Amino acid sequence: MERKVVLITGCSSGIGLHLALRLAADPSGSFKVYATLRDLGSQGPLWEGARARGCPPGSLETLQLDVTDSGSVAAARDRVAEGRVDILVCNAGRGLLGPLEAHAAEAVGSVLDVNVAGTVRTLQAFLPDMKRRRAGRVLVTGSVGGLMGLPFNAVYCASKFALEGLCESLAVLLPPFGVHISLIECGPVRTAFQEKLEGGPGGVLGSADPQTRALFSRYQRHCQRLFREAAQDPEDVVQVFLRALRAPRPALRYFSTERFLPLAGLRLSDPGGSRYVDAMHRAVFSEPEEGEARDAPGGLQGP
Fold first, then answer.
1. CA 50 to each of CA 21, 26, 61, 223, 233: distance values in angstroms, whole numbers, following the listed order
2. What is the pLDDT averaged over residues 111-137?
3. Residue 128 and residue 124: Cα distance in Å, rounded?
4. What is the chain's mean pLDDT, rounded?
5. What percent of the chain has pLDDT over 70?
6. pLDDT digits over 41-83, tens only?
């Protein structure tokens, strides 16, 4: 049985690392996994996990791939088995948290470069061969922040909204080529992603007005509660990737959790947007004090 060749971006930690290990250790031996990292100096946890899971020799290989560098993407493609990738997972991503006016131009550009342009570069490198062979799967790590706007995540949401348009457009085009693309829409996940956020908690707020700083403090409390109640383990999210990967007729979107579907549904069913804006504002900023009962607007539990 010929093994499926899988290439995953962003494997230094979190979802990418867990997915790479899960596929490499698959008992069927069906996958040859290329786990890519921007910095190969951070591959230690990946190999520690491979040893712990007993990944067979040859099932896992690491490659340097920086999605912001077209040359790096091309070099990784050329090192993969004759350029053939059966399953491409675009997982590399970066966040940016805080008031819009507090973000440096470089930080904004970095998020858009990694999340949007980086995904485009990766797809441009690997899609042509999939189309020539009339076969391929593409999985893209999406977010509920690509389906609805979240306060203090304006640039991150902009990048994830862009991925929705990118993938939906390709989904319409690719079926005649035997290629399928799916977004895995994630909610909060217990990974190092939060710790690596540019402009994360404790970041620069000096350029924001006092009211915005107070709202940001409320938002931080909301997020802390949300992560306590709803954050998923990466292994649970990996299960959703596997379901999309193995589906005979893959859907465009898979959701790692149903918790946020009511708000997402409200946004889609409210063309004018006013009801969604009001509901999200109340869900996030009407945070009760510790020990008080929470009354979510309209029965909705916002992200």
1. 6, 11, 10, 32, 18
2. 97
3. 7
4. 89
5. 88
6. 999 999 999 999 999 999 999 999 999 999 999 999 999 976 6
- 174: DSSP letter: S
The interaxial angle of helices 234-246 and 14-24, nearest 10 deg, is 60
CB 186 within 8 A of CB 127: no
Is the model's pLDDT at 202 over the cut of 90? Answer: no
The identity of residue 245, as a single letter, is L
Helices (H), 3-117: 14-24, 44-53, 70-79, 105-112
Nearest to 257 by CA among 164, 190, 208: 190
Which of 34, 156, 219, 276 is an active site residue? 156
Residues 6+ apart with CB under 8 A from 98: 152, 199, 200, 203, 204, 205, 208, 216
Q: Residue 92 in contact with residue 16, Cβ under 8 Å?
A: yes
What per-residue confidence (pLDDT) applies to 237?
96
286 close to 216: Cβ distance less than 8 angstroms: no
Amino acid occupying residue 207:
S
DSSP for 178-238 reads: TEEEEEEEE--BSSTTTTT-BT-TT---TTS-HHHHHHHHHHHHHHHHHHHHHPBPHHHHH
Pairing relation of β-strands 179-186 and 136-143?
parallel
**Residue 276 bears catalytic tag:** no
Compute CA distances 156 → 142, 162, 175, whole Å.
Answer: 11, 10, 29
Is residue 287's pLDDT more than 80?
A: no
Task: Output the six-digit token pair for 102.
Answer: 């507090």
The architecture that CATH gives domain 4-208+231-260 is 3-Layer(aba) Sandwich (3.40)
Q: Residue ranges per domain, the chain?
A: 4-208+231-260
| Segment 118-139 mean pLDDT | 97
- Asked whether the CA dihedral 116, 118, 123, 125 is positive or negative, the reply is positive
User: What confidence score (pLDDT) does residue 121 get?
Assistant: 98
H or E element in which residue 32 lies:
strand 31-37
